[in-house]
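Pair request: fold both.
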Amino acid sequence: MKRFTLLFALLSYSLFSQKVAPVYPIPSAKQLAWSELEFYGFIHFNMNTFTNVEWGEGKESPSSFNPTALDCNQWARIAKKAGMKGLILTAKHHDGFALYPSKYTTHSVAKSPWKNGKGDVVKELSEACKKYGLKLGIYLSPWDRFHPAYGTDDYNQVYAKMQEELLTNYGPIFEFWYDGANGEGPNGKKQVYDWDLFHSMVNKYQPTAVQFSDAGPDIRWVGNERGYAYDTMWSPILRDKIYPGCPDFDNYRNGQENGTHWVSPEVDVSIRPGWYYHRDQDNKVKTPDSLLKIYAASVGRNSNLLLNIPVDTRGLIHENDSASLMGFAAIRTKSLVNLLKKNSSDPLFDGKNSTYWMASPKKKDIRVELKTPISVNTLMLEEPIALGQRVSSFEVELVDELGNKEVIKAGTIGHKRMITFKERKLKSFQIRFTGSRGPVLISNLEAYRFISTRNEPLFQ
C-alpha cells in the first residue's frame, strides 16, 4: 500500500536521554508478555456440546461424550490462520466432566466411549498447539456439580490436585482461567474456595502463566461478554477490594486511576450467541465485519481479545465459524496497515515500544500535518506500559482536506487505543492530552483505514 510523506507543524515532541521514572503500579514481565499477545482463542467443547446446553447439571452420563471426528490439529490450524496466538480449552466446566483422565474425579473422558476411554483432549490440543506454534491455556471451573466432595474442605484439595495434573503434564501454560460462577454441588452446598491455594499451584508449577478471574490476580474480566471494553479502561485496579463473583464488580470494571495493582482486562466474547455449539446457531455466526469492530473495541481499548469458538459434536470447528475467522483475518490484514510513514529516528513513528515521545511541561500536544490528504477512519496510540499507564483523558481534533473540523474526546490509552470515526480525507490532526498521571509518554502513533468485506469504509 502507498504511504504518505508527513510534515510536522507545531509538533511538540521532546526526546530525552535520561530515564523516566515509572508511574506505579507497573506490569510484571509475564503481564507485559501477555499484553503483547492481544488476540487468542477460547475453545468451549465438553459434555455440554453433546447435551445441547450451556450449563450442565453434573448428572449427565459419560457415554454422551463421543465425538466422531475430533481433530485438535484442525482447531490449531484454523486458529493460526486466523492470527490467534494461543487457545484456552475448557478442561472442566461447571458440570464437572473432565476432558482428560484425571485421578481425582470419576466423571471424565476415561468413562466415555470416545477412544474406548483412552482419550485425552488436553493432550491432543497440547500437541497440536506445539505443532502450529500456539500457546496453550487452561480453563478449569472451580464449580463442580458432580463431585461428591464439593461443598467441603476436601474439595479445595481435589481442585488443587486437578490443577497440578494440568499444570505438570501438558507442557507450558500461558493462561489459567477461573470462572466466577459458584452454585450448589450435588449435596446442595456451595463451596468456599481457597483462592490462595489455587493461585499458589499455578505460581509453583507454571510461574510464567497469568491467572484470570474477576479479581485477577494477574488479569481480569472486562465486565461484559458482548465484546467490548470501555472508553476509560485502567489496568491499575483496587484488587484487594474485589474477588471472583464479587456482586458489585461493576463498580470496578473500568479499573481505577489510583489502583494498587496492575491487573489488565481481557474481553471474552463468543463468535456465536452461545458459548457451546448448538446446531440452530449455525447461521448466527458473527461476520468478519462484526469481529473487526469487536477487535477495535477490545484490543483498541487497552484489553486483550479472547474469542470463543464452539467446537461441534464431530469435534471440529464448524465450516461457518472457520469461514468467518478467515474473513476476519483477511480484513485485519487489509485494515491494519499504517498509513503514516515510518521514521526510524522518530519515537512516535518508529514502530517500537521501547522508544517514546514525551510531552514537555509547556507543550503537551502532538500535531501532525499530512503533505497529501489520506482516507482515514482510525487513529491508534500506544503507551510504553512498562513504565505504567498514564493518560486519563485526551482529545483528537481532525481536519479534513476542506478544513472541516471534528473534536473527539476520549478516556484512557494504555497498551493500545484505537479512535474510530467517520472516514474522511484527513489533512491534519492534533492530539491534546487533558489528564494524566505523570508525564505523558506515547510509544507509537498510527493511522488506518478499517474496511469491510466489501472494501467499503467500516466506520461510516
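--- second member of the pair ---
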Amino acid sequence: MQKFVVILGAAESGVGAALLAQAKGYTVFVSDRAPIQPAYKEKLANAGIEFEENQHTLDRILLAELVIKSPGIPEKAVVIKALREKVVSIISEIEFASRYTKARFVAITGTNGKTTTTLLTYHLLKEAGLSVGLAGNIGYSLAEQVIEDKHAYYVLELSSFQLDDVQDFRPWIALLLNITPDHLDRYEYSLEKYAEAKLRIAQNQSLDDYLIYNADDDNIGRFLKTAFMTAFVLPFSLHHRPDYHLAGYYEDDCTLRVHLPIEDRHPDKVSIENSPLIGQHNHQNMAAAILAARVAGASPAQIEAALATFKNADHRLQLIRELDEVQYIDDSKATNVEAAWYALDGIKRPIVWIAGGTDKGNDYTSIVELAQQKVKALVCLGVDNAKLRATFEGVVPHLEETQSMADAVQRAAALASPGEVVLLSPCCASFDLFKNYEDRGQQFAAAAWALPPSESVPSV
C-alpha cells in the first residue's frame, strides 16, 4: 500500500515536495491555509495532485504517515500541535529531497549575507566547471530539481526555519556566516534557541565533511563548540588571528590567504581585487565562498576569474548608475540596523543617505558614530520619521523629510557633490510606502535613471 504524505503549504518548497513525493510513488495531499497562487495551483492540477486551499482539514491531515511542512508554518500553529500530539513525523522539504539524491550539498546559513554567499558560491563552482544546482531559500525547490537529479552538487541557501525540521540532512560543506538576533519570536525570544537552529546545519556532518565558519562572529564563538564537531572545521577572519588555526584570512584589502589543512595543500592566495562586491561584510561572504570553492577543487585562478564576472542579487549594495561622478547605490534589502551598518561601513566616499520606513523597534545607537563620520546628509523617507530625526539630528550636518521615492532621490541628488554616493539603505521595513523591499529598490532605480544631468539639477 502506498504511503500517505501530506504537504503543508503550497508555495515553492511545498509544490516541489509534492511533485517529488508523487514521482516516488507516494499518495499525496497538499493543504494550504491561505489561497494558493495560480501558477502553483496549475502545477498541482496538471500533475493530478489533490489539494485544498484556505483551510486545513485536520481529519484528513491527521491520517498522514509523513508530513512535509513549509518553513513558514510555526510550531504554535494548530495543525502542527495536533500532528505533534499524534506523533506524526514532520520534516522539511530539504530533508525529504536529500533522501532521494546522492549529490553533495554545499549549504549556507547565517542571519545576514546568505543570499550573496549562496549566489557567489554557486557562481564559483559553476565557472570552475562543476555540475551544480542552486536551491533552498533562494527561491528554487530542491525537491523539484531532485526529480531529474542531474547535478553532482547543489548549493543551498538555508534559513533557520528550513533547518528546524531536518533529521538526517548532511551537507558535505556547511557555511556558517553569522548569528545575530532575528526571528526570535519563533524561538521563544531566546538567542540560544535561534543559534541551535542555525547550528543544525552541521549536526550530521562526519569526518569527510567541512564546516566553514566566521571566527570574527561573537555568537558563533559562544554557541559553536568545535570540540564536539567531527567535521573538518575551517574558520575564516578579516585579519590574521593567532588564537585560531585559520583556513582563510585577509593579508590586505584585496588578498585572501587560504590554507586548507587537507591533502597537504600548501597555502595559496586569492585576489578579490576585481570583485564588484562592496564592504567588510562582503569580504566575509567572499572568504566563505572562496573557501568552499577551494574545498570543492576550484583553483585560485578559476576563482579570481569568476569573482570578476559575478552579479549579485538585486537591492544588495547594487550600483544603479553613476551620474556626474555621483554613484547611486540601492541597498533596499537593508531592512535592519545591522545591514545598514554594513553599508555605511563599506562605502569609502561621503554619503547622502536615504533611510526610513516601518520601524521594527530599531535601536540606531550602533550606527550613530558611523553616520557622524561618513554621512553628509540624511534624507528621511517614511510616513513617520520622528525616531530617525530624534537620533540623527545634530549627528549629520543636514537632514530632510520626504514622503516619496522620487522626491527623496531628487533631494539627495541635489545634495550630493562629485565623488560622493547617494545610498538607499533604509534600516527599516518597506510597508509604509511600498509593497516590499523589491518595490522600494525598483522605485529608487527608476528615480535615479530619471535624473537629468547636473546642469538641470537645482542647486541647494
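Observation on the second member. The chain has three domains: 4-87, 101-308, 318-456.
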